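Today's session is about reading a structure prediction critically. Students often jump straight to the picture, but the first step is always the sequence itself: look for stretches that repeat, for charged clusters, for runs of hydrophobic residues. Only then move on to the predicted structure, which in these notes is written as discrete structure tokens rather than atom positions. Here is the chain we will use throughout the hour.
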Amino acid sequence: MQGSTFGSTFRVDFATVVTQSATMRTQPAGRRGVVSLLFLLFAITYLDRGCISVAGPRMQQDLGIDAIGWGWVTGVFTLAYGLFEIPTGIMGDRLGPRRVLTRIVLWWSAFTILTGVTNGLYALLLIRFLFGAGEAGAFPNAAVVVSRWFPPAALLWLNVDTSAEVRVRVEPAFA
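Below is the predicted structure for this chain, in token form.
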């Protein structure tokens, strides 16, 4: 089967895709570990953002924080995350994604603990700001890990395969 051209610089040769996919399946141990660790990283980053909203009413009651103060608590995390996303991605380019992702995991672990032992609004604001700054960069650095561990043609194959599987599972529910 002939390859397809996307734009002027990206050419996909489907024989190469199948060959690289077969090669990827014959050397799965390291890649499976990488995918497992990245999945865990994504799950934890998702949970730590969601759990604060579940714990919020109890925290507001215990710490005496009103709705406006709580808005600052949730907003300051987002502000810091946004401010430090690109600099932490650049840090990953310079120091390597393994070091930066390790730093991110250690940082968010420490600030998860500190969130639980805070005693007031201003301390919580500082902790949440530093939490957001520390967690920023997880996704850009994870993207670098994926680009280094998986050949582009295999990623295309996996994406097409996964999309087809999702489409088969989801479309009947909406039919």
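Discussion point for the tutorial: The longest strand covers residues 4-6.
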